[in-house]
Amino acid sequence: MPQWRQGLTKSLHQTRSMPESRYFQLATVDGSGTPFCRTVVFRGMTDENQLVVISDTRTEKYSQLEKNAQAQVCWYFSKSREQYRFSCLATIITASQDINLVKQHWNKLSDAGKKQFLWGEPGTPRNDGTALQIEGDFDEVPPHFCVILLAIESVDYLNLRGNPQSREWHQKDANGNWVSQALIP
Ligand SMILES: Cc1cc2nc3c(=O)[nH]c(=O)nc-3n(C[C@H](O)[C@H](O)[C@H](O)COP(=O)(O)O)c2cc1C
User: Fold this and answer.
1) Domain membership flag for residue 96
2) How far is the CA of 60 from the centre of ligand 1 (A)?
3) Which residues form the Pyridoxamine 5'-phosphate oxidase Alr4036 family FMN-binding domain (predicted)?
4) Which pLDDT tens digit goes with each residue over 92-112?
5) How many domains does the chain have?
6) Quick one: which atom of ligand 1 is closest to the CA of 36?
7) CA torsion angle for 76, 82, 85, 90 (degrees, to 10)?
8) pLDDT by residue (tens digit) across 113-131?
9) Residues with beta carbon inside 6 Å of ligand 1?
């Protein structure tokens, strides 16, 4: 396991009582190079060091990642005062590509979580005063539900604890092995 992943496992453990430590910011760019950033929920990590996120193919992040798979994750753990910045390459998986993976994540959601995917098109105008209607069935994975796998290419880690603070850079060498370098913060 790479050194940074051992550190991340520890950060998640130390902050396990704080739900907000499971949220991180995911930045993408559109076709003109304009950056967009939003909060998403960390849903786990694969054996291949991919961060797992669930989302909706009708959101901006989907079309942006389809055109440019490069993304950055910024994740701050306020209790341990650590920041991880991950440079990532995204792969988006829908039910038509891997029904088992997508179903596995859909089935983990509560009914309240599933509901959010059945309210209609995200980002389109909402009529004042009308309740949002559920379109679809909780037992069936909606075609727009997707899993985003963010393969970590490099890591910029900063720990604000201590004087001086510590910063580390992690990336893969030509043989695919992770190498680390301490940096001036
Ligand atoms: C705490 C929090 C957690 C969120 N988690 C997710 C998530 O896991 N997946 C997701 O697609 N959107 C999530 N959102 C909503 C996104 O931040 C964003 O508003 C939405 O996905 C539309 O973004 P986009 O159109 O830029 O893609 C979350 C928002 C908040 C505030």
Assistant:
1) yes
2) 10
3) 1-93
4) 999 999 999 999 999 999 999
5) 1
6) 26
7) -60
8) 999 999 989 999 988 777 8
9) 23, 36, 38-41, 53-56, 59-61, 123
